[in-house]
Amino acid sequence: MDKWQALTDVPVYQPLVRLAQQPFDLTGLEALSPARMRQYCCSVAGIDLLYATQRVNDEVLAGLQELADQCKLIEQFRQMRRGAVMNRIHGFPSEERQVLHTACRDLFTENPVEPITSGQARSEIARLKAFLDELDNGTLVNSQGHPFDTMIHVGIGGSDLGPRSVYEALRAYGRPARKVFFVSNVDPDDAAAVLRRVNLATTLVNVVSKSGTTLETLTNEALIRRAYEAQGLDPDRHCLAVTGKGSPMDNPTRYLRSFYMFDSIGGRYSLTSMVGVVMLGFALGYELVLEFLEGASLMDEAAEEPKLRQNLPLLLAMLGVWNHNFLGASTVAVLSYSQALHRFAAHLQQCDMESNGKSVSRYGESVHLMTGPILWGEPGTNGQHAFYQLLHQGTEIVPVEFIGFRQSQYCEDLEIEGSSSQQKLVANLLAQSLAMARGQDNENPNKRFTGNRPNLILLADRLTPKAMGALLALYEAKIVFQGFCWNINSFDQEGVQLGKVLASRVLALMQKGGGDHGCDSSVEMALLRTSKMKLE
Ligand code: G6Q
Q1: In terms of CB atoms within 10 Å, which end of the chain has fewer, N or C?
Q2: Is the CB of 154 within 6 Å of ligand 1?
């Protein structure tokens, strides 16, 4: 989008505002016809998007196509994948970086769209394969000659949430003899709880930090290294590093093995880089990691399709913009009917809200429309027994993105009272979607369901590594498309800086000698006194 173009300046904005005054009524008798259901379905890379339960009709979809075209969303996505410098605020000092997370999985063709970063990713993945082979064939063992059977993944934010959520999602395919634990919080109890559960002698510690300077990660690494020393073990023979070239952690003599991620890959988009795949390779094996990356790569390619109704990520993004900017919904819930996806919403929360929680445009001007929504979620059916009351009858309209699978992962299921657990799970998902859309009248107002609560369903056969890769890339592309549409920079995170700076100031005050405190009249000191924290 050009400098002058805020979303409100895009020609099709006003026509869409007019259409939004009378959005499609999902509660009508024939509203959810079989024909509508068939037509409002888009399938890409093994994932189906069923969106008949959105408040759109053909006219709105045509308007959203124009919106995507007028904002040049596909063109920008193509430029991003080919290495354009997208992470910038024009006219102001900013990160000035390419955005190339997609290059990490562009591994399945002779001609990657951006060969330099893809080439680097290929050589890192070859190094990872060699490392995993050594673990498998017994060339790499601990000092007593025993195989490594456990990994502690240490990292925070983008270096934790994505890897952890996909590990949880794919645990069903994990190698039975390998365990993975995560430590992220600087809360000492996080590391202490994990250290109690592992045998350090057969454990690898995967320290992941792009910057190599993150307080929490460095503190946890030091704490875990201390635990090794206390047992007479050499931590350098157990710790791996995943970091940026030239970072303070880029010191191969301190680590059993070092892997690299690149400047052009932001933390929250780094799951398919070494940030995620070293741990996933250990847990699942190399072949399944490749399947995961292949799923992501298929979705990246599909995201370049210009036709909205055939481009799943673009459609998901534009339906989100319709609900958020035109129908006025301020949050979106991602409700996975899959226990394995129980941390996926947490990852999306970061990926979406850190990317699109912005108030200035890519030209430093204040934006006048809502940008990123509040994203939240929990797995179904658990959520049904908790917050769904508000989703059905609350005053806040919450668009819902349901995620489900036709088959379970473990295929350990039984028919109880005529149906399997998987059938019960999917039946609940479908029922919730209909209930939210159609509602139900009742003469008792307390039992009335107004309906017209927009929702959609993402459905795949089974949560396999490939499907997980596709699902991840789908959401990454959705977030990027929406950011382009709002003309904001979805790739920096200045909003997390202020808190970090203040935390170091408060910490410095805590560490300062007792005598200096008397005359300190800063607001930080006043807060410390009020909080009755012990000052050293
Ligand atoms: C993500 C953010 C942030 C980052 C963490 C960890 O996009 O940049 O969540 O991932 O702060 O950073 P390091 O990997 O540098 O330790």
Answers
A1: C
A2: no
